[in-house]
Design brief:
The protein has helices at about 5-10, 15-20, 40-65, 70-75; strands spanning about 1-5, 25-30, 30-35. With about 80 residues, it is of the alpha+beta class. It has two domains: about 1-40; about 40-75, no CATH class. The chain has a three-stranded mixed sheet. A hairpin with a 2-residue loop joins strand 2 (about 25-30) and strand 3. It is elongated and about 55 Å long.
């Protein structure tokens, strides 16, 4: 993964975009990483991977006897009782 400074991003934005198409680019400010620039394809791949992960988690929870999505939504709409 390529790392560049925020100043370089400001001065070379076109080059940063071209680099990010090939691999994620870490942007540092004050010698600390603050953001990552990545291609839309990589972003889409990561979002799909996350969606699959959470879908599997939900299926496993439902299989193990946890609330279904409908039960969860219903529970979220119920008023919360406080002990204060």
């Amino acid at each position: 993964m390529k790392t560049i400074t925020a100043t370089e991003v400001k001065n070379k934005w076109g080059q940063v975009l071209l680099s990010a198409i090939r691999e994620p680019v870490v942007v540092e400010k004050n010698s600390r990483p603050v953001v990552v620039v990545l291609s839309i394809e990589e972003h889409t791949r990561l979002m799909e991977l996350e969606d699959r992960y959470w879908a599997l988690q939900a299926m496993e929870a439902e299989r193990d006897g946890y609330m279904s999505p409908e039960e969860s939504l219903s529970a979220l709409k119920e008023p919360v009782e406080t002990t204060e």
